Amino acid sequence: xxxxxxxxxxxxxxxxxxxxxxxxxxxxxxxxxxxxxxxxxxxxxxxxxxxxxxxxxxxxxxxxxxxxxxxxxxxxxxxxxxxxxxxxxxxxxxxxxxxxxxxxxxxxxxxxxxxxxxxxxxxxxxxxxxxxxxxxxxxxxxxxxxxxxxxxxxxxxxxxxxxxxxxxxxxxxxxxxxxxxxxxxxxxxxxxxxxxxxxxxxxxxxxxxxxxxxxxxxxxxxxxxxxxxxxxxxxxxxxxxxxxxxxxxxxxxxxxxxxxxxxxxxxxxxxxxxxxxxxxxxxxxxxxxxxxxxxxxxxxxxxxxxxxxxxxxxxxxxx
Length: 319
What we know:
This protein is an all-alpha fold. 85% of the residues lie in helices and 0% in strands. It has ten helices and no strands. The longest helix is centred in the middle third of the chain and has 46 residues, at 166-211.
């Protein structure tokens, strides 16, 4: 039986799932349409499309995990738990590293620093991003190997098939938790550093514009302010997501049926859902297309209401 808190949290999970799939599906669809039309796809558009797809996968597997945890907790003797964990790790890996690549790309494209290292990376931005994405596959392989061993040990112990010695039983979970922490801390630290450097560069440029007599109503000033707000919002969501993941993996066994654990799962889904709307709001092309879709939906709703109103009046007239 599920309690009242789990029922309320399930409603939030469904809402985050629907909104997140809508936003990420919109981002992926817009970029795919541009690609089909033969328009030039920039590196940032490709990363946004891949990020949207990975987040949709993360949302689907997160909701599946939520359903298994709340409604079908007895998965100890089943391989379904291992499959869910593997898919979640793959989706989360590409989600966080594509986000990190996007942060680095924005830093190299927008920020202005006179450092020779920064200029060297700026001139080779495409190679830098591809190297990061390909190099991080090492983390993914180690992560998948350790989670497979850890979950199989857990299932065999639950089924009573194998009794592992104390050293193996302690070493494998500790290694898994360490790799999990590193696999999430490294991209978080890189995103944090990139975002802070970008904020510093934008703030410094904004300060120069104001000292040179540019008013707060100047379009470029508004663009810089909006960019800073976007980056800060992203950092807050990413920080919450990172802390919840680390807290959950280190205290999973003690919080498995705790209200804190369920609340943390709901908050963790906010990041792949909410940040997608921030990306739409901060991207000029996506924002224009999104507003166009909303206007079209509003037009359809108004037509539907008018037709319904006319049908009701016609029915009243007949009677």
